[in-house]
Every structure is written in structure tokens, then in C-alpha cells.
Design a protein that fits this description.
- The chain folds into two domains: 4-124 and 204-310, Malonyl-Coenzyme A Acyl Carrier Protein, domain 2 (3-Layer(aba) Sandwich); 129-196, Alpha-Beta Plaits (2-Layer Sandwich).
- It is 50% helix and 16% strand.
- The chain has helices spanning 20-25, 27-40, 44-50, 53-57, 59-79, 93-100, 106-123, 139-151, 173-185, 206-217, 240-250, 257-266, 280-288, 300-310; strands at 4-8, 86-89, 129-135, 156-163, 166-172, 190-193, 228-229, 236-237, 271-275, 293-297.
- The strands form three sheets. The chain has a four-stranded parallel sheet, with helices on both faces. A four-stranded antiparallel sheet has the order 4-5-3-6. Strands 7-8 form a two-stranded antiparallel ribbon.
- Helix 2 (27-40) packs antiparallel against helix 5 (59-79) and helix 8 (139-151) packs across helix 9 (173-185).
Length: 314
């Protein structure tokens, strides 16, 4: 029996023009862009469709932009009768998953992740923090290096446990730079700086987490209609108060993506559909389990391909 998970990408997947075809060909997608603009009080849609990329990448813009495009894709799939049994998102993508699961409205989701981005930027202004993907080193060896550099006064720590052989580190710019050098000396194959504007999922985000808790208290959150797999503990959650608590913790805790995917596989998920720009999560899922069926929807062509494929699902 087919079990479907909608999965939603996080920061780093944003690109100018993402979702453009949907807004040009479908009235409800265009309406969602207008709703996002109204929720924020500025033209997010123009930033998504026209850029510039540097401005789109700023965390307080990238977060609502990615949530908007991911939500448009999920809505289109649901309109075609393709509904998920579970949802999950990588970091920021967890909020898009919560919108898809009915925990918060689309407008509240757009608004709260914009605030989340502002809080994160206030905690560590753009340029002072950094993240990098470390390839080919196990978690224990990596943590030894990051702990040593943190003890020297340059905070850095594991942030995204993505898949076998890929862990993202996060911290101050100096901490990440030092860690990249030492981790390669310790045997890492590569250290790749990420196109993000802050040290997400690190202890440096604790001041932002406090403010985020207040912002989440001001929006209407409901129990999930569709179970969500949480980043913090890779567990299935539905209770809105538990979800709120996990979202606050998520800001300064590692994203347990590999464990989350394995949890969904254990729950019987047979098909993963990545909703939004790029194929980052699709690639990670295939590295976690090559036998998984993984599909990506980011434009009309890929949407139609999934609709066609779904006709054979039972």
C-alpha cells in the first residue's frame, strides 16, 4: 500500500523565479502569493519572482519565500487528490510542513517565519555567523573537533545531521572557518560553505528562540490533521502545544534529518514528494535509503509527472 510523505526544503534552496510557472498558470497559486504579500505588508512575491538573489537569501526573506512556494506546491498536489500520510521539513521547511498538516494557517506561517528570520538576524547579524557542509567524516570525530574549537572561544557545533557522510556545522564565522580546516586535517573529504546568512541550529540562536516563543504564542495553532515528523527528536507529533515547544527548541538544536527519514520509512512511507525548489532533500533521502521512491515538484512539468505517476499508486 502506498504511503506518502510531503517533505519541504529549508534555507539554501531559494532561487529567484522559483514557483513562477505556478503563479502564471494557476489562479489559486497567484492568490497565495498575494496573501503572502498582504500578511507581510511588502511585496514578497516580487522578491521571489524578480530578486535580487542577495536580498532573497537574507534569512527574514528566504524563510517566508520558501514557505510560500512549498505551500503552493502542496496545495496543488492536494487539489489533484494527492494527500500525504505524513509531513516533514528540513529546518525552516518544518513550518511549511505544519501549514500542510493544518497546524497553522498559511498567512500565520508566512508571518511567523518572517519574524523568526528577523529574530535570528538580530541574534547574529548577517556575516557574523556561518554554516558549512562537511562530507566524509563520522559524527563522533566531527564533534571532537567542533568541541575543541568551541572551547578555544570560537563557537561551532553540528547543526544538520543530514545523511551518512554529510553533517552541517554552524557557529561564528571564525569558528566555522577553523573547523573546516581542522576537519579536513582529521579526514573529511570536503568542507563546503553554505549560502545562508546565519549560524542556524547553534547555541548562538538561543536569544532568538526566546523571542520566537512569544511570536508562536500569538498565533492560532491546532493539533495536526496529518502527523508531522519533528526535527528535534525525529518523532511523530500531532499535539499543538508539543509542536510549539519543539519549534522553539529547534532553533538552537541539530536537525535530525537522517533519523526523521528513517522514522518515516519505519512508519511505512513508500513515496517521498519534495515540495519546493531544488532537489536537496531528494538527494539526501536517496543517500539514506536507495530503495525509497523520491519525487520532486518545483514546476508544472514535475507536477504533471507526479500526477501521472500517482495514477499507478494503490
Amino acid at each position: 500500500m502506498t504511503k506518502i510523505a510531503f517533505v519541504f526544503p529549508g534555507q539554501g534552496s531559494q532561487s529567484v523565479g522559483m514557483g513562477k510557472e505556478f503563479s502564471e498558470t494557476h489562479a489559486s497559486s497567484k492568490e497565495m502569493l498575494a496573501q503572502a504579500d498582504q500578511a507581510l505588508g511588502f511585496s514578497l512575491s516580487n522578491l521571489i519572482l524578480e530578486g535580487p538573489q542577495e536580498e532573497l537569501t537574507l534569512t527574514y526573506n528566504a524563510q517566508p519565500a520558501l514557505l510560500t512556494v512549498g505551500s503552493i506546491v502542496a496545495a496543488r498536489l492536494k487539489e489533484e487528490g494527492i494527500t500525504p500520510d505524513f509531513t516533514a521539513g528540513h529546518s525552516l521547511g518544518e513550518y511549511t510542513a505544519l501549514v500542510a498538516s493544518g497546524v497553522m494557517s498559511f498567512e500565520d506561517g508566512v508571518s511567523v517565519v518572517h519574524q523568526r528570520g528577523l529574530f535570528m538576524n538580530e541574534a547574529v547579524p548577517a556575516g557574523e555567523g556561518a554554516m558549512a557542509a562537511i562530507l566524509g567524516l563520522d559524527g563522533e570525530a566531527l564533534k571532537e573537533v567542533t568541541d575543541a574549537i568551541t572551547a578555544e572561544g570560537f563557537p561551532v557545533q553540528p547543526a544538520n545531521l543530514n545523511c551518512p557522510g554529510q553533517i552541517v556545522i554552524s557557529g561564528t564565522k571564525e569558528g566555522v572557518e577553523k573547523a573546516c580546516v581542522r576537519l579536513k586535517e582529521a579526514g573529511a573529504k570536503r568542507a563546503i560553505p553554505l549560502d545562508v546568512s546565519g549560524p542556524f541550529h547553534s547555541s548562538l540562536m538561543k536569544p532568538a528562540a526566546e523571542k520566537l516563543s512569544g511570536a508562536l504564542s500569538e498565533i492560532d495553532m491546532k493539533d495536526a490533521a496529518i502527523p508531522v515528523i519533528a526535527n528535534v527528536n525525529a518523532s511523530k507529533v500531532k499535539d499543538h502545544s508539543e509542536i510549539k515547544s519543539l519549534l522553539v527548541e529547534q532553533l538552537y538544536s541539530p536537525v535530525r534529518w537522517e533519523e526523521s527519514v528513517r522514522k518515516m520509512l519505519d512508519l511505512g512511507v513508500t513515496h517521498f514528494i519534495e515540495c519546493g525548489p531544488g532537489k536537496v532533500l531528494s538527494g539526501l533521502i536517496k543517500k539514506i535509503d536507495r530503495s525509497a521512491t523520491v519525487l520532486s515538484v518545483y514546476d508544472e512539468e514535475t507536477l504533471q509527472a507526479v500526477i501521472e505517476a500517482s495514477k499507478g499508486w494503490s
